[in-house]
C-alpha cells in the first residue's frame, strides 16, 4: 500500500486514540459525536477505505450494498457485532474485525455489581436515603437476599462468562453454565463449574441467571417467554450481553406479576428506549449500556482498532477478524 487509508470513525473516541489515528492514517472523525444517520453511513460506505463503527451503527445488507470497491475493512469499536451483517460484508470482500479481550474484565465487574446490587437492594436503599425516607435502623428493614451459597447459572461461557464465574466463586456462589459445548476440563475444574447441556433444566434450578452469549439469529430470545417461566420465583436475571437475547416483554410481565425476584439490566431490546415499567420497579436495577464503560477500557479498545487497521493496511491478516461462520 502506497497511500494511507481513509479511516471514517462514526463516533467520538478517546482523544489519545483519535490523535494516534490521525498520525497513522487519513481520518474523518466525528467531533460532535452525533450518531451517524443512515444517510451518513451510506455516504461513508462510498468514501471510506476503512470504517470504524460502533454498536449504534446498523450495517445491514442494504447499507453494505452501498459500499464502494474501496471499502475493504470494517474495524468495529466493540466486541459484539450483531449490528453488522458480517455474512454480507464477507460476500462483498469486506473484512470485519472487533475488539475482544480488553473489555472482558470490565464487563465482568459490572455484571458482578448487578449480581450484588439487585438481591442486596443497593440502589433501592440509596434511593430511600436520597428521598429523605430513612427513619432509622431496624432488624427487619431493607432485607435482601444473600448471594453467598446460591447457584449462579451462566448462559454463554465465553471469555466474559468465565470472568464472571471467577468473580462469583470468590463471592461463594456455585457456578453452573450452559454453552453450546462444555469448556475445557481444566477451566471447568478451576471454576468448579457444572455444565448443563439443557438450558431448560439449568434455568429451573438456578437462583441467579446471568447472560453472556452474543446476540445471533440462534440466540435471539433465547430466554423466551416459555423459558423464563421455567425460572424459580425467587430467581434473579442479569443481562450485560444484548437485550435481544431475552424476550423483554415477557420479562417485564413476569417481574410485574411477582413471578421473578428481580433483574439487573445493562442492555435492552429497543435501546436506548427502555420499557417504562422496568424503571418503576424497585427490584430492577437498569443502567445505560455501561458494561465496558471504563476510561482504560475505551483506550484499550481504540488501540485494538488501530492494531487491526494497521495490520490490514500493511497487508497482514488483522488479529481480530470476525468470521461469519462463527456467528
Ligand atoms: C461497547 C459492547 O460499549 O463491545 C460490545 O459488544 O457492547 C460495548 O462494550 C459497544 O459495543 C461499543 O461499540
TrEMBL record:
<comment type="similarity">
    <text>Belongs to the D-isomer specific 2-hydroxyacid dehydrogenase family.</text>
</comment>
<dbReference type="Pfam" id="PF02826">
    <property type="entry name" value="2-Hacid_dh_C"/>
</dbReference>
<keyword id="KW-0520">NAD</keyword>
<dbReference type="GO" id="GO:0051287">
    <property type="term" value="F:NAD binding"/>
</dbReference>
<dbReference type="InterPro" id="IPR006139">
    <property type="entry name" value="D-isomer_2_OHA_DH_cat_dom"/>
</dbReference>
<dbReference type="Pfam" id="PF00389">
    <property type="entry name" value="2-Hacid_dh"/>
</dbReference>
<dbReference type="InterPro" id="IPR050223">
    <property type="entry name" value="D-isomer_2-hydroxyacid_DH"/>
</dbReference>
<dbReference type="GO" id="GO:0016618">
    <property type="term" value="F:hydroxypyruvate reductase [NAD(P)H] activity"/>
</dbReference>
<dbReference type="InterPro" id="IPR006140">
    <property type="entry name" value="D-isomer_DH_NAD-bd"/>
</dbReference>
<dbReference type="GO" id="GO:0005829">
    <property type="term" value="C:cytosol"/>
</dbReference>
<dbReference type="InterPro" id="IPR029752">
    <property type="entry name" value="D-isomer_DH_CS1"/>
</dbReference>
<protein>
    <submittedName>
        <fullName>Glyoxylate reductase</fullName>
    </submittedName>
</protein>
<keyword id="KW-0560">Oxidoreductase</keyword>
<dbReference type="InterPro" id="IPR036291">
    <property type="entry name" value="NAD(P)-bd_dom_sf"/>
</dbReference>
<feature type="domain" description="D-isomer specific 2-hydroxyacid dehydrogenase NAD-binding">
    <location>
        <begin position="112"/>
        <end position="291"/>
    </location>
</feature>
<dbReference type="GO" id="GO:0030267">
    <property type="term" value="F:glyoxylate reductase (NADPH) activity"/>
</dbReference>
<feature type="domain" description="D-isomer specific 2-hydroxyacid dehydrogenase catalytic">
    <location>
        <begin position="8"/>
        <end position="322"/>
    </location>
</feature>
Amino acid at each position: 500500500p502506497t497511500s494511507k487509508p481513509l479511516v471514517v470513525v462514526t463516533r467520538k473516541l478517546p482523544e489519545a486514540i483519535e490523535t494516534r489515528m490521525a498520525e497513522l492514517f487519513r481520518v474523518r472523525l466525528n467531533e460532535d459525536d452525533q450518531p451517524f444517520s443512515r444517510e451518513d453511513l451510506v455516504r461513508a460506505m462510498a468514501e471510506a477505505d476503512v470504517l470504524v463503527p460502533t454498536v449504534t451503527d446498523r450495517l445491514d445488507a442494504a447499507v453494505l450494498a452501498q459500499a464502494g470497491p474501496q471499502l475493504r475493512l470494517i474495524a468495529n469499536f466493540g466486541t459484539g457485532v450483531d449490528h453488522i451483517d458480517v455474512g454480507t460484508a464477507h460476500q462483498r470482500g469486506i473484512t470485519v474485525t472487533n475488539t475482544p479481550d480488553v473489555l472482558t474484565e470490565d464487563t465482568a465487574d459490572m455484571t458482578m455489581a448487578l449480581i450484588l446490587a439487585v438481591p442486596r437492594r443497593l440502589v433501592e436503599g440509596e434511593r430511600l436515603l436520597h428521598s429523605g425516607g430513612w427513619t432509622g435502623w431496624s432488624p427487619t428493614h431493607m432485607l435482601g437476599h444473600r448471594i453467598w451459597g446460591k447457584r449462579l447459572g451462566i448462559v454463554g461461557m465465553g471469555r466474559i462468562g468465565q470472568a464472571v464465574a471467577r468473580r462469583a466463586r470468590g463471592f461463594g456462589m456455585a457456578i453452573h453454565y450452559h454453552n453450546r459445548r462444555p469448556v475445557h476440563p481444566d477451566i471447568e475444574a478451576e471454576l468448579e463449574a457444572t455444565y448443563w447441556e439443557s438450558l431448560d433444566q439449568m434455568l429451573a434450578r438456578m437462583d441467579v441467571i446471568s447472560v453472556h452469549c452474543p446476540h445471533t439469529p440462534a440466540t435471539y430470545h433465547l430466554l423466551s417467554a416459555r423459558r423464563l417461566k421455567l425460572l424459580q420465583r425467587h430467581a434473579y436475571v442479569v443481562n450485560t450481553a444484548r437485550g435481544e437475547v431475552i424476550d423483554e416483554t415477557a420479562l417485564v410481565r413476569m417481574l410485574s406479576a411477582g413471578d421473578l425476584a428481580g433483574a439487573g439490566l445493562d442492555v435492552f431490546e429497543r435501546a436506548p428506549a427502555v420499557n417504562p415499567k422496568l424503571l418503576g420497579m424497585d427490584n430492577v436495577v437498569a443502567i445505560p449500556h455501561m458494561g465496558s464503560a471504563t476510561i482504560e477500557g475505551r483506550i484499550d479498545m481504540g488501540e485494538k482498532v488501530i492494531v487491526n487497521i494497521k495490520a490490514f493496511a500493511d497487508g497482514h491478516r488483522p488479529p481480530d477478524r470476525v468470521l461469519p461462520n462463527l456467528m
